[in-house]
Design goal:
This protein is α/β, with parallel strands linked by helices and 245 residues long. The protein has ten helices and seven strands. The chain has a seven-stranded mixed β-sheet with strand order 3-2-1-4-5-7-6, with helices on both faces. β6 and β7 form a beta hairpin. α3 crosses α4 and α7 packs antiparallel against α8. The longest helix is centred in the N-terminal third of the chain and has 15 residues. The protein starts with a helix and ends with a helix.
Length: 245
């Protein structure tokens, strides 16, 4: 069965690098997409799902979610959260920082640029780790998940969603059909992202880095999701900080 799966599914393609001009074009595409009901609904569902995993306060790590809006909406809904956003490019981080300031969240969200495993975050530092649609862009997703397992608290929640990569017989029609939902600036990005996306089996293999308990993998027509439930840390410095503000 696994052999048939490998024959039916093309291998993952590395997500192509982009220059600064292309990066700015993509950012504007995500700004346009954020105003569309389809993307707004997807994002709200993701945020509510993350907030429903059992952690009500603490430190959030957001790995590259477009424009930083996932983390910002989490902070907007929960005053006992702070967040760190990690982005592949300086332009993405700068735009997210501008938005955080506009939303009045500049003192609750912080920003880094680079591969997640290049930062020296402490073991068990984050209460929640999220990533919406960007895991496929990191050069080594398995290594990223191993780093998530290290820096998330033992009781920390994890929610990662990415694009589904269909089998080789359906991938072209899948890209055409679902790509229509994206602004024109993002249609090429979407096509590359689908080819760099994951099968449910690949996501299941990656999720094992997070431990066998409290983790499940789900899939629908366009996305795969891994989630790990969590619990509040009574010794969280973030929650103590918010109580005395």
């Amino acid at each position: 069965m696994r052999l048939l799966g490998r024959l039916a599914h093309p291998g993952r393609q590395a997500f192509a690098g982009r220059d600064d001009a292309d990066d700015e074009e993509e950012i504007e595409g995500w700004v346009e997409a954020a105003a569309r009901p389809y993307f707004s609904s997807l994002e709200e569902d993701f945020v509510d799902r993350a907030l429903g995993l059992g952690v009500s306060g603490g430190m959030v790590l957001d790995l590259g979610s477009p424009l930083g809006l996932v983390a910002m909406k989490m902070l907007w809904k929960r005053e006992d959260l702070l967040a760190m956003g990690v982005y592949r490019t300086r332009a993405m981080a700068d735009r997210a920082r501008e938005t955080a300031i506009e939303w009045g969240l500049g003192d609750r969200m912080f920003f880094q640029v680079g591969e997640p495993f290049r930062f020296r975050f402490k073991d068990g530092y984050f209460d929640v780790v999220v990533s919406d649609g960007f895991l496929h862009r990191w050069s080594d997703p398995a290594r990223v998940l191993s780093e998530v397992a290290r820096i998330a608290k033992p009781g920390g929640a994890v929610l990662i969603r990415d694009l589904l990569r269909p089998n080789r017989f359906r991938i072209a029609s899948h890209i055409r059909r679902h790509g229509r939902r994206y602004p024109e600036r993002l249609q090429g990005v979407h096509a590359r992202a689908v080819r760099s996306g994951f099968t449910p089996g690949e996501f299941l293999d990656l999720s094992r880095a997070l431990g066998a308990d409290r983790v499940r993998v789900l899939a629908d027509a366009t996305h795969v999701v891994m989630e790990r439930t969590g619990r509040d840390d009574p010794e969280s410095w973030v929650m103590e900080r918010e109580r005395y503000r």
